């Protein structure tokens, strides 16, 4: 059986969408106050050096040119040219820049000191998936400490250019490049936290990561706890304990939940028959599937299908 990529499957299912708000030149002094946002936010320091502070931290953080910072869970923070710069609400800044009236626009007396790229990551939180629950509050890729990621900064520069200059196809380029940026941020976080507990670390674990790939590559409800444990050369008990500790739920629960999420997606977006969806979810009859589906989501498959249409 071909091995799937669990991370790619999860990102597709949570409907990851990237968006760039702006890439603009600023003249000092400037600052933005960013409120909590359910979705993720990111900044790329294209030019200059600036300051950033999360609201729960006591000290501001110095950002260098080429640094990339992200708040996958949308934590409140501020960013500015100086730690004591007057700060405007971020929403106001975005609206003004997008309407063509940059509040920090350079001019003869105040030349360009910084160029900043800002945007967001959006997800479907209705899925209640452990990946979303395990997203970190803050990721910082320092240019000075990651020369091996110069290619990523090149992508960020292309993204900045596409955001800065409207060209045919720019909106598609911006969306795709922002999604690439998000995936690399998660990869970076995974590499920095190997061996930790949590879903994102589980994706990188040689054993649990393999189990997740097998589950996400399953189109016909083939895998169960015994088969997964055997594939990993672990006892059922050892596999269940390790999987539960890292993922946050037993493998049986994860299997059921994922199959139900995929079934829900097929009901919303496709035209497969109810029996076909039931069978691929591991149920021998529509009635058994419908009963389990309603118990899982507190809504019937028919209701979900009509809602999707």
3D architecture notes:
The protein has 309 residues and is α+β, with helices and mostly antiparallel strands. The protein has two domains: 6-192, Regulatory protein AraC (Jelly Rolls); 202-308, Arc Repressor Mutant, subunit A, CATH 1.10.10.60. Helix content is 45%, strand content 17%. Strand 4 and strand 5 (61-63) form a beta hairpin. It is elongated. The two termini are 33 Å apart. 31% of the residues are buried.
Concise overview:
The chain has 309 residues and is α+β, with helices and mostly antiparallel strands. It is 45% helix and 17% strand.
Give helix and strand order, one letter per element, not per position.
HEEEEEEEEHEHEHHHHHHHHHH
CATH fold node name of the largest domain: Jelly Rolls
What is the helix fraction of residues, given as a range? 40-55%
Largest sheet report: 5 strands, antiparallel
Distance between the termini: 33 Å
| Share of β-strand residues | 15-25%
Placed side by side, the strands forming the largest sheet appear as: 1-9-3-6-10
């Amino acid at each position: 059986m071909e091995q799937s990529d669990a991370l790619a499957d999860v990102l597709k299912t949570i409907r990851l969408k990237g968006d760039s708000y702006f890439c603009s030149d600023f003249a000092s002094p400037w600052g933005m106050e960013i409120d909590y946002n359910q979705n993720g936010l990111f900044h790329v320091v294209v030019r200059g050096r600036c300051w950033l502070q999360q609201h729960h931290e006591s000290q501001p953080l110095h950002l260098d040119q080429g640094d990339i910072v992200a708040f996958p869970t949308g934590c409140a923070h501020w960013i500015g040219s100086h730690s004591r710069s007057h700060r405007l609400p971020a929403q106001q800044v975005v609206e003004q820049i997008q309407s063509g009236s940059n509040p920090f626009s350079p001019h003869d007396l105040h030349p360009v000191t910084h160029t900043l790229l800002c945007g967001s990551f959006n997800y479907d939180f209705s899925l209640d998936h452990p990946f979303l629950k395990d997203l970190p509050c803050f990721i910082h890729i320092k240019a000075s400490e990651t020369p091996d990621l110069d290619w990523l900064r090149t992508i960020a520069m292309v993204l900045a250019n596409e955001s800065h200059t409207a060209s045919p196809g720019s909106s598609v380029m911006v969306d795709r490049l922002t999604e690439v940026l998000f995936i690399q941020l998660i990869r970076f976080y995974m590499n920095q936290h190997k061996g930790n507990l949590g879903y994102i670390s589980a994706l990188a674990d040689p054993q649990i990561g393999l189990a997740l790939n097998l589950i996400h590559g399953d189109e016909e409800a083939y895998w169960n706890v015994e088969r997964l444990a055997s594939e990993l050369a672990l006892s059922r008990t050892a596999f269940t304990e390790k999987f539960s500790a890292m993922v946050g739920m037993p493998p049986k629960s994860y299997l059921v939940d994922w199959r139900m999420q995929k079934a829900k997606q097929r009901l919303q977006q496709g035209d497969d028959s109810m029996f076909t969806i039931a069978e691929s979810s591991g149920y021998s009859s529509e009635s058994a599937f419908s009963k389990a589906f309603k118990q899982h989501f507190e809504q019937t498959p028919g209701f979900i299908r009509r809602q999707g249409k």
